[in-house]
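Hi R.,

As promised, here are both runs. First protein below:
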Amino acid sequence: MSQKTYPTLPTRVKALMADVVVLMVLMIFTTYLFSSFDHISDNSRMIAFVFIFYLYDPLFTSAFGGTLGHYLLGLRVRREDKPEKKLLFHMALLRFIFKSLLGWLSLLTVTGNDKRRAIHDYLAQSVVVHTEGSVTVQQVAE
């Protein structure tokens, strides 16, 4: 099995910022789509936006191993005990909830351990790794 490499704090922040852009695009697209119809209830609009905001991260993380931001930066979210496996949905949802509640505080803990796990990674038993083919800054420096 090959050596796993773990992303730095700046790389994880870049992935997060890419996801913020993705969420904004999804919300703008949804708003535009809803404006095409005559009668869309406020409840339907609210449900759509809640679905986009709260389920984007856990659905993508459990189904594909990461969000679009993770994919753009060559990262994957995996189970800590079995890094070859993706997180199950309930663990991805738990990870997202803690990440949202703790905010930047959780992300800042990445630098304090060998696997660069944030608090929300510990609580969800997850780890973020570089994909096999991705090139890390550390590898380029060597």
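And here is the second one, sequence first, then its structure tokens:
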Amino acid sequence: MKFETVTIKDIARALGLSTSTVSRALRGSYEISPETKKLVLEYAEKINYRPNPIALSLKERKSRSIGVVVSEIANTFFSQAINGIESIAYNRGYHVIISQSHESYEREKVTIQHLASRSVDGLLVSLSNETIDLSHLKQLHEKGLPVVFFDRITDEINTHKVTANNFKGAYDATQHLINKGFTRIAHITNSQNLSITRERLQGYQEALKKNNIPFDEKLVHYTLHGGMIYDEIEGEIKKMFSARQKPDAILTASDRVTTSCLTALKAAGKRIPEDISVIGFTNTNIAELFNPPLSAVRQPAFDMGQAATELLIQIIESKRPVTEFETRILDTELFTRESSEHPPIQPKAES
């Protein structure tokens, strides 16, 4: 059976009114008497009439919808950011259409083109691990489609951006490990293409430099798929522990990388923190329930989602072209737990 929506024509026919009278009554026009308004509104409520969003979008040239592109909804960080996005969008009368790139440039490109073809009013984008060429976004932005980047941002497009203080988060985490006595700290991170990768690497390097610990590029492990493919992380863990000089601690740089790394370490028979200490970027709410409880850098994901949405709606609703943009950097928070403790030195057995 084909679903058929109720239209203004149906209401007009039932009440013996013109469609223009019904339309004006539904809009609360002063031209329509209170009695007629009451009659129309009560009947519309009775038959569950709802305005056709497609018709409205054609009339107003706005769809009241926002497209959101993230790598993966199952990622705790992005699920929290989406909650922030929806909390603002809903209250401002916008619908949110969420799409996943799954860390694929091609999928990101097709998704963004599809959202644009569906006439979304604007885009909130967190770039995929594979994305280097931004021409698909540049073309839309140059044509006037509002775009705001969050978390994984770019300097190639002049627009609003919202991100975390990735430098400070990585610096604080690395400094914590150094304070615990670790000197060979491995860093497992995302693709080199991403802004968050570069910023977190810089924070890690700066903490080493401040403590006169030489930077060893062999201790940095990049993952093209950011932990979404477990075998990739497992391979890096095996490579790490087969090296002549093994690390004594690991800093992981994202939600997926962190959880996949913990799984790979367990599969390799490595105990935390007895064999290796770990601290990671993660927004999971159960980090303290891990065994052992996980030390972590937490990002203000919900607040980032809210801020990005507010900035996007400002562009969408501006009466004049927006030419001045800002980059908001929100603070991270470090939580230290047992996973980053230095294992006690075992006394040598007497001979």
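A quick note on the second one: The first strand starts at residue 65 and ends at 70. Let me know what you think.

Best,
J.
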